[in-house]
């Protein structure tokens, strides 16, 4: 039996650093010149981005015929990647908004970074619907403005809901992120000795003074934003799931899709955040701020959401059988034993089986193990979207039109490019802004709040 | 903060005898009406009995879930009044008794129990491996056994801690709760499929388990909130509960009211949009005849009114408001179950008479009685819980 | 030094407990215009300072509801009134399908507007010229200290008293903060004519450039790929066919829909003998005949069929139809002339349908009768 002491709140920040020390630790990456390793990493991500740009250039020049999409599989890699990246973005808002509402203090160390990843992931995701419409230069017609044809957009289409959901999500996440950054800009402004930096930080801090008359409203707005962001984060992946679920295609049309997609998104998002944080805390010496306890808690959430995803798989299978509808039953048997069985079993093992190792405390707290498991989770979640999109389309109601979908090199180039795009932003972020919220981490440091003993 | 054992002052006060009396009076009144209504209209009573069964299951199982999630999530703010949920979970002991009349009337409630009907219907005979009376009975017994097992295991440790103040008991309960979670998820899902979804055996919806779970959680939260606020106002709970605690309760009620709307809307919208006949049948029944008013009423009663009532920050801390809306949400859950179950009994329009009144009376009577019996035997505060002091120090 | 205007007296504390205590005492003392500056929000400070709860929640509610109603109205108008199209068999006002967008716009409107209200209305940001900026006090409170600043504007402010009060609270580094004279003397040039004219010029340039870019330079013919298809148009030549015509002749013997081939081609006598008028004389038939006659026949034959052409001799005048020869022709014979033409009169079969031709024949009969009425007509 372990003898955990439940009488005291475990501190979020280890080692009792002073507030000034926290400033120093967090601001250090911004004040030092990037080293060789950083440039090496940037070179790698930029090369990946370059591959993607080449793939896109070819696609624009020759057309989308370069992709593996065929008839009936009209939704191939672009939608798979879109859903995948939007999903990655969900962890950030979950950490910053939902865990904020649940007063989980450990979130303070990782919220900023996760929010940043949200913004970059949504930016990455937005590439895919834009290129998948085939003529991205006409994408302006997706917005309801009084255009030359006096035609309006189709408000009953889930694809249009996506436009609204993803752009709202991006805007609100960005605002949330910026509002959180304002006090940190003020701290950096008063800390720096460089004149240029001071001007930049002053402009972005808007003249923040740490006044409690401001903190009061600031906290209120933060609460309101969290209150809005929470249903928003649910709605975004819900609407992404509607893209599939409002159709009548077996395997797409099922009522559990909304919560199931949200859980899956949080699942993959947490895995991605955990992966990147493992590097960040090591490279920037944030071990006392992004503690092993925090990572363990993230692993627990990965386990929880992974189990919810497993529950949804089980319910889908059970209900397909229970429904008595033949095409439904066929679709699920086809998923598990049809031509895409390999993808299905990669998905099932990575998403449901491997995360179960997180029941074991030692694995939850072992960096190499958790890293590998989280990578597997992301592989699995990518394949989940692949399985949903491709298996249902490739064998739909009409057996005469069945076809096997094989992605092309261009598809893979664009996929690699999306990773390059995302990680380039992440790398730039680590060197230009504080990746841990200075004000928030101070607020949960030991002894930083009054003890209220005199009340 | 001292590192010694808790120095929380708590003097156990017994609930006034009138509580017990009210409970018994309601119980007897409810029972009389029910027995009489079984004589008058057996089928209708059996359907009402099913609502009662699902309602009490919600309260008991939902409360047990709340206890488990507190352990699992390491929450401290709810520790000072965790006992309230533990007592409410004891309703689970009564639930099997409520299930007996339902089981005796299986043929008049569940269409699929008639073997001749099933044999004539290819879809139903396809499901008969799952929907048959033997397997149904086995499942029900297994569900009750599992729920009661975890109820006894978790509350036993919690009770023991009052005396021993052993921190390992908390660790043990955390582990128990972790094991309970997947079992809970599966049992509540299949219980809702068995008892509600199979009323119309042709219909299916993958989200249904989540729908019932959300309603149950809300009902359990609402019952707990009402009792906590009442007891705290009368001084039966420990001193030191603040607005911050009230706010958290109110916020959870508000959050899950929204979550219910989200789940209900997702289910409706997807079925409405795809318009597949095998799925729309569920909503067609509920938009038929006078049921359409009940359906529209559900949106207001279950979502819009509690949403508006709990939206603002002060409204979540106001004791009066909290009490009103927790009762409202309990009523809304009953209403929701009525909306789910009764269209299978009367297709043409909703029915409401004296028969429908006896069952809620019995439900309230059982809850009050179970609570007062449990509170006589046990402390209303988990005084040995290591998280108790932290729970009292809790600030937003 | 004395010409500097005092903004406030500031003091620093080391722990959150001290600052809460100090804030409570300051508020109790009756100071209104004082502020606490901390590197992060300190719990319980709002109560200690006796601040009213933030009203921003109500702003958020109003902004959110505005977003909701605006979206509902806009979508209803667009899909149910301005351009109704049936999509997927759903009603024009398909409310369940509107809910996602209503929700998104509500959230967007509420969060963006609330944050902007907070920053620009409540905080009056951006404000980088506040007297507290660039002081040692500010450098301390954005990092690790907890500061209090009692402003000189306060009614109870008295330099000595405040200094002593802060000392009694246990504050360190008690320092006065002055307004920056340079900042104070800067006049905001918002209303100067030069600035306003600059704004006007910028406005004209920007809007002009936007107009030209969007409407002239970037104008794309919308969806023109239906107009410009690679196909052979009727009048074009085409090398694919031996005769080089883009337009193809129908297969021999093709009969146009609704048309029966004329049986008495070049056989006026046969037509005269065998064809009978299928129309029963009625008001409508005569009206039709009159319209068609006046349109197609009267230019040469005259309104009364007397051969008095309105063409002023550009063509040879046709003979009168009141001649005995024509009066004695059968209906079929007349029909044949209209169908096939006669002498220099062209055929009218492509302009007039069979029914119309028969109606014209009837009308001509009526015209003939008007000049050579029978006895019975007069009765």
Topology record:
The complex is a heterotrimer of chains A (455), B (396) and C (379).
Chain A lengths: L18 H13 L4 H27 L14 H25 L9 H22 L25 H34 L3 H11 L6 H34 L11 H27 L8 H32 L2 H12 L3 H13 L7 H4 L2 H28 L14 H24 L5 H6 L12
Chain B lengths: L16 H24 L1 H32 L8 H8 L1 H14 L1 H4 L5 H6 L1 H6 L5 H32 L2 H29 L12 H27 L8 H32 L2 H10 L4 H19 L3 H5 L1 H23 L12 H24 L10 H5 L4
Helix pairs in contact in B: 1-2, 1-16, 2-3, 2-4, 2-9, 2-10, 2-15, 2-16, 4-8, 8-9, 9-10, 10-11, 10-15, 11-13, 13-15
Chain C lengths: L5 E8 L2 H14 L4 E4 L7 H4 L7 H27 L12 H28 L13 H6 L4 E6 L7 H11 L2 E7 L2 H5 L7 H25 L50 H7 L8 H19 L22 H5 L2 H10 L13 H18 L3 H4 L1
Antiparallel strand pairs in C: 1-3, 1-4, 2-3
Helix pairs in contact in C: 3-4, 9-12, 10-13, 12-13
Q: Can you describe what's shown?
A:
- The complex is a heterotrimer of chains A (455), B (396) and C (379).
- Chain A is built from 15 helices and no strands.
- Chain A has 455 residues and is mainly α.
- Chain B has one domain (17-392).
- Chain B has helices spanning 17-40, 42-73, 82-89, 91-104, 106-109, 115-120, 122-127, 133-164, 167-195, 208-234, 243-274, 277-286, 291-309, 313-317, 319-341, 354-377, 388-392.
- The longest helix of chain B has 32 residues, at 42-73.
- Mean pLDDT of chain B is 91; it is low at 1-5.
- Chain C has 379 residues and is an alpha+beta fold.
- A four-stranded antiparallel β-sheet of chain C has the order 2-3-1-4.
- Chain C has helices at residues 16-29, 45-48, 56-82, 95-122, 136-141, 159-169, 181-185, 193-217, 268-274, 283-301, 324-328, 331-340, 354-371, 375-378, and strands spanning 6-13, 34-37, 146-151, 172-178.
- In chain C, helix 3 (56-82) packs antiparallel against helix 4 (95-122), helix 9 crosses helix 12 and helix 12 packs across helix 13 (354-371).
- Chains in contact: A-B, A-C, B-C.
- The interface between A and C is large, with 75 and 70 residues.
